[in-house]
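Researcher: Here's the sequence for the chain we discussed earlier.
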Amino acid sequence: MIPGMMGPMILAAVNGNPQRCALVQNSDETVINIIIADPLVDPAPEGCTIVGLPEDSPVSFGWIYNPDTGEFTDPNPPPVEGAT
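Model: Thanks. This is the structure I predict for it:
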C-alpha cells in the first residue's frame, strides 16, 4: 500500500466532490491506482499526482499519463482488427 493513499479517499468523502481519479507516479508518469478523490483539493501521496477522470474513461493500472497534453495512453492497446 502506498503511504497516504487513504487520505485522498477520506478527504473526498468529506469535501463532497469525489470523482474517479488516476493516481500517477511522477517518476515515470504511470497510473499506479484508481481512486476516488477530489483532485483540486485532496493531497496526493508523496511522489504522485491525482488526475481526475471522466466517468466513461477506460484508464486503468499501467496506463501512461502525459502531463503536457493531459492525455493517457494504453501501453497495451488491443490488436487492430484485420492487422497482421
